[in-house]
Task: structure prediction
Amino acid sequence: MECKRDENLKHCNCSYPGCDKKGVCCECISYHLSLKELPGCCFPDSVEKTYDRTFKAFARAWGL
Result:
């Protein structure tokens, strides 16, 4: 399967400078899950910018 990196970048809200996984969703998801986190695209922009990608931050952000 060919990576659709350029298409994915149109929807990627990751604000981490120098992230080498931007637009490569399969690597990004795998990386964050290995740290027991979610990727930035799961969060509203205001929360994503805090770099708190924990499951607790996700629940707070979405009122769960």
